[in-house]
TrEMBL record:
Keywords: Cobalamin biosynthesis, Methyltransferase, S-adenosyl-L-methionine, Transferase
Enzyme Commission code(s) on record: 2.1.1.152
Species classification: Bacteria, Pseudomonadati, Pseudomonadota, Alphaproteobacteria, Hyphomicrobiales
Highest taxon of the lineage: Bacteria
Species, as recorded: Enhydrobacter aerosaccus
Catalytic activity of the protein: precorrin-5 + S-adenosyl-L-methionine + H2O = precorrin-6A + acetate + S-adenosyl-L-homocysteine + 2 H(+)
GO molecular function: precorrin-6A synthase (deacetylating) activity
Protein name per the record: Precorrin-6A synthase [deacetylating]
PANTHER family xrefs: COBALT-PRECORRIN-2 C(20)-METHYLTRANSFERASE, PRECORRIN-6A SYNTHASE [DEACETYLATING]
GO biological process: cobalamin biosynthetic process; methylation
Any Pfam family hit: TP_methylase
Pathway: Cofactor biosynthesis; adenosylcobalamin biosynthesis
Length: 249
């Protein structure tokens, strides 16, 4: 039977690849990578660096396919994500069926931890249901863990809960009864909506990379700086990935 290892690689720093992930990298015959085009060049480069640095124990091949394009501001977001996942699934399925031999082990590198806002597990499960694959998941360090460590904070206050959400959901309002709110996938600087409230923010961009930016404080006092640094970094690099925690004070 063919086997697929879904390996969490952390959010940008090769040192965040765990020993378990390194062992897994060295069991893989064929790595499958979806190329993401110019904007995500850096993310693909990190994947290649990780392979060069850690997957040294045995010969392997890397098979790449272009990543399906994503509409930036679709009218129907969920339908768009469904379409994107279907296209990604089809791309992975073509590569796995065509390039992985019987009894071989394939590897897919998942950004951060594959359990958090990542479609790889769902996509590979669907491919497995049609093609009979074995699947193993290796956890990775998430951007959220790096954010908390860099700011030297805990995600939850004592005995309280943490709510993890997206910028799109946060735009609907502060999650009911949530104490600490962690926000990912926010292309719209949604924290601005809460700048008139008594809220503290711990913000991080390009976490784990050389370009890492960290800003923390009362939101109303630091919001202008976050907006300014965010826009400048995005313009300079062509893309940005940021994550933040907010809580009422
Ligand atoms: C598709 S989700 C993937 C999350 C990933 N599975 C994880 O565990 O971190 C992408 C979002 O994760 C966050 N993210 C990932 N890498 C990051 C980084 N290096 N710095 C800041 N945020 C990051 C951003 O909120 C980004 O929009």
């Amino acid at each position: 039977m063919k086997k697929i290892l879904i390996i969490g690689i952390g959010p940008g720093d090769p040192r965040h690849v765990t020993l378990e992930a390194i062992e897994a990298l060295n069991r893989v015959d064929v790595f499958f990578v979806l190329e993401k085009g110019a904007v995500k060049r850096d993310m693909v480069a990190l994947r290649h660096e990780i392979l060069q640095r850690f997957a040294t124990g045995r010969p392997h091949r890397v098979v790449e396919a272009p990543s399906p394009p994503r509409e930036r501001t679709p009218a129907d977001y969920l339908a768009c994500v469904d379409d994107l996942n279907r296209d990604k699934q089809a791309a992975f399925e073509r590569m796995i069926v065509g390039e992985l031999g019987e009894g071989q082990c394939g590897g897919i590198l998942a950004w951060g931890d594959p359990a958090l806002y990542d479609s790889t597990i769902r996509n590979v499960e669907a491919i497995a249901a049609r093609n009979g694959l074995e699947i193993e998941v290796i956890p990775g360090i998430s951007a959220i863990q790096v954010l908390a460590a860099r700011h030297r904070i805990t995600l939850n206050r004592i005995g309280q809960s943490v709510h993890i959400t997206t910028g799109r959901r946060l735009a609907e309002g502060w999650p009911e009864a949530a104490d600490s709110v962690v926000v990912m996938l926010d292309g719209e600087e949604t924290y601005n909506r809460f700048a008139d409230q008594d809220v503290e923010i711990y913000w991080g961009a390009y976490l784990g990379t050389q370009d890492e930016i960290l800003i923390a404080g009362r939101l109303k006092e630091v919001v202008a700086e976050i907006n300014r640094r965010r826009a400048a970094a995005r313009a300079a690099k062509g893309w940005i990935m940021d994550t933040y925690l907010m809580r009422r004070v």
